[in-house]
Amino acid sequence: MERQQRIEALHLALQERILLLDGAMGTMIQAYGLGEDDYRGERFKDWHSDLKGNNDLLSITRPEVIREIHSQFLESGADIVETNTFNANAPSMGDYGLQSLVVELNSAAARIAREAADACAADCGQPRFVAGVLGPANRTASLSPDVNDPGYRSITFAQLAETYQDAAVALIEGDVD
After folding, report:
1. Does domain 3-173 have CATH number 3.40.50.1260?
2. For the chain, what is the radius of gyration of the CA atoms?
3. What's the pLDDT tens digit per position in 145-159?
4. Is residue 143 scored above 90 in pLDDT?
5. How do the domains of the chain map onto residue ranges?
6. Residue 131 forms beta bridges with which residues?
7. Cβ(93)–Cβ(87) under 8 Å?
8. For residues 125 and 33, what is the distance between their CA atoms, to the nearest angstrom?
């Protein structure tokens, strides 16, 4: 089914019934007991800082884990799975020195979720949908992080808009609904 057909099917389904959204991705990831090496994978094995806890990075380093989690939610009855992109924005990825991966992370996560949703739809005969997630950044343009300088901002609105635009375009190109 093409993207536009899926969006139309989503609108129709929403008119007919309540759709079920997947559960907590972070909690599911924690249940796997992944270590630093899992987060690093081969590509980031010599990275200069710790990567454990960067769940979004697993879409690149351990895509099979993320796909399996999506599949578990879908098999449990979820109609919609969310991409593993809650922190896939430049400010949040900057904590790990990975801000340049925003597009790649969002694109990879969208493809993984799409594959899981399409596989489930093929098995059950009902469309399954993918919601692209744009989570909060770890910085805010509305408050100063410095109580001694209330006018100071560690990020601008334009910087936030740019990283969210990059993420949204990558999610759409990755085939979210």
Report:
1. no
2. 17
3. 889 998 998 899 999
4. no
5. 3-173
6. 82
7. yes
8. 33
